[in-house]
Automatic annotation (TrEMBL):
The keyword Transmembrane applies. It comes from the Bacteria. The keyword Transmembrane applies. This is DUF4307 domain-containing protein. Pfam families: DUF4307. It comes from Georgenia thermotolerans. The chain crosses the membrane at residues 34-52. Keywords: Membrane, Transmembrane, Transmembrane helix.
């Protein structure tokens, strides 16, 4: 009678039927190939995400604003002064706001600037208000795609 070699992996304790152990705890794993494949796939996904993020960041136009100040002209107007820092040639839309003493927005204006010729440019715009304002500033800016 030919003998079969023992199966790889941990052996059940002496006197315990391997079929009972398999039924109770499942069959022992035969290899780690699936774990290795999953790890390689996960590593490739991480590398692809980093490459995509880097490429996107390199193609993004820089944009930054610096509030320089404001002047309340009268009960219905405030002038907002600011610097715009962006890539030369970019066109930007900025939202300017005026607030009252309770920090409620009482004026709003969108201005389109550009294409700018220098990286840093100075701007000012009048914002019409519905009641006297105590401050004016740049709320947000976004680069307009050509």
């Amino acid at each position: 009678m030919p003998s079969t070699p023992p199966a790889p992996g941990p052996r059940p304790p002496a006197g315990v039927d391997p079929a009972v152990m398999a039924a109770r705890y499942g069959r022992p794993r035969q290899g780690r190939r699936g774990v290795i494949v999953a790890a390689v796939v996960a590593a490739l996904v991480v590398v692809a995400a980093l490459v995509w993020q880097t490429t996107t960041a390199m193609n993004r136009t820089t944009l930054h604003t610096e509030d320089l100040g404001f002047t309340v002209q009268d009960a219905t107007h405030v002038t907002v002064r600011f610097n715009l820092v962006t890539d030369p040639g970019a066109t930007v839309r900025c939202t300017l706001t005026a607030l009252n003493s309770k920090f409620t927005e009482v004026g709003f204006k969108e201005v389109v600037i550009g294409p700018v010729k220098a990286a840093r440019t100075a701007h000012e715009a009048d914002v019409t208000t519905t009641e006297p304002a105590v401050t004016g500033s740049v709320k947000s800016c976004e680069v307009l795609q050509p």
